[in-house]
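INFO batch 0412 | record 1 of 1 | parsing
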Amino acid sequence: MPHDVRDLVVDFVRRWSEKAEIGVGRFIPWLGVTASKFYDWRQRYGCVNEHNGWVPRDFWLEPWEKEAIIGFHLKNPLEGYRRLTFMMLDADVVAVSPASVWRVLKQAGLLSRWKSKPSRKGTGFEQPLQPHQHWHIDISYINLCGTFYYLCSVLDGFSRFLVHWDLRARRTFAVSKSDSTTSPLSNLTWLRREQELIRAKSNLELARAQLNTAMGVPMDAVYQPADPLADQSLAVPSLADVEQKALTSRPDLKRIESEQSAQQLSVAIAKSSFGPRLNAFAGWEMDNPTLLAGGGGNNWLGGIELQVDLFQGGAKKAALSREHAIAEKIAALKQAASDAVRLEVRQAYYDVDSNRQQVGVARSSITQAQESLRINQDRYEGGLITITDLLGAEESARRSQTDYWQAVYQFHISSANLELASGTLNLQSPVVNP
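INFO prediction complete | emitting tokens
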């Protein structure tokens, strides 16, 4: 604001404040200015506006004097700035103080001991042109509930995305060669995969040993499966048909049926012992026979015997009761075995149905995991996610493949268990010869 307008405002407030007996503080809000600004105007009353820049002084060095100091230093580069000051006085070059000589030579960069690169301070930051080209590291000291921690964060220079952060109580980090290029979380993922690989190798060796034991060959023998595990559709009949086949084909049920038939014969024999027994007998005897002339006598005997047991002390009744008890026991065993077979068949049937559905779910999850991996790869290339997120997507895709083959394996095992429970498992079964 011009100083004459400013003074007119101060005069207006002073005059009307005296006439209207209204305080100056009431006028300030009406004018639309702050109190500090008005009182500053009143303090500068009668003064013109001046800029805040430096006013040139008579004792300042002229440009030609600075050029003379620099030129004299270049002619005598081995002399210090103090000796140069007095040498210039003797040579009538310039008359300045040693501090002025030092200041001129310092600003010209002639006093530095080493030739360093010019400072880029104030020239601005060169923004990276793509993600993961510049990573910025910052360590902060924060207070959490009275305890101080070190917060280390890694920031991407292009997308300004927080790549990784870690909070520790000490500012000591064990940095290895792999840590210089990967994050701690990616190293943890790599170690977890190493552990899974070791566990998988151990399971493979154990499975080979179990296969050799089942085949009756030495455990150290190596066999490579000729037919790898593959997803194939196996026909599964209805539950009623499978139960009927099991009840008619199971060897254990057939054995119980044979024992039941034999016991029924034993009961029939025990019953027949209560009736009379009719026995027929006959005999023939030759007395002093000769080979050519013959001679001698012939004696023969025949008869029929009827036996009727009048009293046996209850032995036959007890034997019959025992045979009846054994028959009832075998019938109960047959019923229990039939129920157990039905339960086993139903459990195997439901396992097959569940594993078949799990195979379908695992197959669809593979497609979703691969699509998610593709999306995360595109987002990582665009700098929208970190390497940790990309590793997580790769881990999910790998686990979906593992879960799929595990579901296929469980489906084949459950199908074999179903045929075993129904008594139809043989060398020509589809689950044995796919």
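INFO post-check: The first strand starts at residue 135 and ends at 144.
INFO record closed
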